[in-house]
Amino acid sequence: MTSEAESGAENEDGTPPVNVDVRERLAIIRFNRPTQRNALSVATLEILDAEIAALTRRTDISAIIFTGTDDVFAAGANIREIASLTPATAKEFAWRGQSLLQKISDAKQLTIAAVSGYCMGGALDLALACDIRIAAPNAQFSHPGVSLGIITGWGGTQRLPRLIGETNALEMFLTAKRVSAEEALNIGLIDEISENLVNASMKL
User: Fold this and answer.
1) pLDDT (tens digit, 9 = 90+) per residue, 59-70?
2) Among 4, 121, 88, which Cα is nearest to 51's?
3) Which residues of 138-152 are buried (b: 16+ CB within 10 A; e: fewer)?
4) 55 phi/psi in degrees, rounded to 5
5) Of the candidates 76, 45, 46, which has an alpha carbon nearest to the alpha carbon of residue 148?
6) 3-class secondary-structure state, position 118
7) Cα distances (angstroms) measured from residue 141 to each of 47, 57, 81, 90, 145
8) How many angstroms separate the Cα of 106 from the Cα of each of 36, 52, 100, 101, 102?
9) Taking the model in full, what pTM does it have?
């Protein structure tokens, strides 16, 4: 079963920015905006919020996997949308992301981030909200906000240091350092490296 995106939120070719595939007791949520590096726009967040709300209510789903395309998990929040924020809309934008990621964190199902390629900013925050993180060898993790004069407002400032320690987290936040899959495994950011992310996730 594949869900359809809300009207007006499709890609240029008419495909939805988020695909949800339910296979027996497993739901796979795939970010599907390759030309936009799977950026988490407001429209995408709204779709994700609705899908997560629906999936977490289901008793026949035992695990939810988040994944992207071959070379990118997701590039984080949409930079153009961030640039247009006012103090009032920035608070709403932060709340929207925090609310969604808290739903993922609170889900009764096992949640897994299956990361291939770039996992940046808000997308890293989403991965941090999951129970388990599995990465392909080409995965790279970063919080690049400092290079833009901003910092994440989606809960990463709390979840990242809890997972990898304050020193490692501060280095990522303050330098916009990119962390490879191997280093991510060494510092505890991910739980496993696998060539076949979906199969590895399904084995769990």
Assistant:
1) 999 999 999 987
2) 4
3) ebbbbbbbeeeebeb
4) -70, -40
5) 76
6) strand
7) 24, 31, 22, 24, 13
8) 29, 11, 10, 9, 6
9) 0.88
